[in-house]
Design brief:
Bound molecules: adenosine-5'-triphosphate
Number of strands: 10
Number of domains: 2
Largest sheet: 6 strands, mixed
GO molecular function: ATP binding
Strand order of the largest sheet: 6-7-8-3-9-10
Distance between the termini: 60 Å
Shape: globular
Radius of gyration: 18 Å
Order of helices and strands: EEEHEEEHHHEHEHEEHHH
Keywords: ATP-binding, Nucleotide-binding, Transport
Structural class: alpha/beta
Strand content: 15-25%
CATH superfamily of the largest domain: P-loop containing nucleotide triphosphate hydrolases
Protein name: ATP-binding cassette domain-containing protein
Amino acid sequence: MVSGLTLDLAVPERDVAVRLQIAAGEVLALLGPNGAGKSTVLEVIAGLIPDGGSVCLAGRELAGRPPSRRPVGLLSQQPLLFPHLSATANVAFPLRCRRVGRAQSRRRAGELLGAVGVGDLGGRKPAQLSGGQAQRVAIARALAAEPEVLLLDEPLAALDAAAAPAIRALLREVLRRRRHIAIVVSHDVADVVALADRVAVLEQGRVVEQGALADVVGGPRNDFVGRMTGTFGADIGIPPADPA
Ligand SMILES: Nc1ncnc2c1ncn2[C@@H]1O[C@H](COP(=O)(O)OP(=O)(O)OP(=O)(O)O)[C@@H](O)[C@H]1O
């Protein structure tokens, strides 16, 4: 049986054509400039763009399945919680969609909220949560249906600088358990270094480079990430070169 995730994607109306192989348990960082096609890749995997090509997970073809029938969890920049539901009900929602009973869904939601550090906030509505708390709830919700693939689309970009490191550490912990294949889209090198095993770079809808993180960040082409994201110097506090 073929393990891992094999992508052969084509979205001609966005000029995106991407082939990628991600091993079981691997975390891939998808990098590239604005408009390169990173979100499009995630949307096809999640089933939000129908007819976007082949998404083959451990030998099973996911193309043609609606988003709710895919073993895929998506965590976006914004938590996108249902505003009228409590944190517990938000996390229970994907379980209820999969016909898990109400009591069991709520019990599991409570466990997940505890695991992401907001076990005491289950009764609150999203408007009563801080940005970091809301993103923790969103992580719990993304994990609720026990996805085999986790898609993280700029998961820390909307958080303030004080909240981001704790959420990054939480995601690192989640991904280290190796239960998921994961794809992380980020413009922040700190995320890539903390979370990813391997990087792939998209430009104009095509994969132009890919490699192991150690080769890319520590090797002779160590400007690689900075060149692709344009943020390297800023992230690690290096002032721009003095033109004089
Ligand atoms: N809803 C849409 N309809 C049509 N074209 C779109 C749509 N969303 C994105 N595109 C186009 O598809 C291409 C890829 O966009 P995409 O959002 O996937 O890039 P990205 O790498 O995620 O960019 P960013 O880093 O700015 O989020 C771009 O040319 C973009 O203009």
